[in-house]
Amino acid sequence: MLDRFRNFNNNFFSDEAHFHINGHVNKQNCRYWSSENPKTKHQRPLHSPKVTVWAAISAKGIIGPYFFEDFQVTVNSTEYVRMLRDFLSPQLQEFTGYNRNTWFQQDGATCHTSNESLPVVKEMFPKKLISQRGDIPWPPRSPDLTPADFFLWGYLKHRVYAHKPKTLFELKAKIRNEMSEISVSLCRRVFENFRARLEECRSRNGDHLNDIIFKK
User: Residue 166 sits in a domain of what CATH number?
Assistant: First the structure.
């Protein structure tokens, strides 16, 4: 990546993340005041309602969120292709800065790299795909590197759960609002930091970047 790109201003990095209704735990709810031990258990549902969110971040802004509505099922190739064609493709046409030289990154999830999905992604980004089985390979299990994992999801969940959404409708509304508030200047700083992480990864011969704090 460092040898191929002088900068990363024309790159999209995409990913999905789960947002659970009970994603924020209020510590006050775990305390019980009594003159003696009430032996009360704090219970939470094993599988809380959630939404699966897709987004693509670049130095010029973010495309998303897109919600995979069926929260009981892992995203599959058919759903991913539907998102690419019905959501990402028209969004790209309206996105300032998108052009035929724009690169697109995705991780190695099966729904991204299946025989059904991959031809569609390659058609949308000919010779410009960063992915397993793509034009530039993307390493598996690499959350140290991708701007979505390293920045977007953690930042977004911190902001969303501060509002303590109670329903899926409210949760999705908060995700939309908070994602729309992420400025282009912040995205630009994230991508400047991305180069620093690549350089650190190269200096470590590809090892994970444990306990590394990068300049904000």
Answer: 3.30.420.10
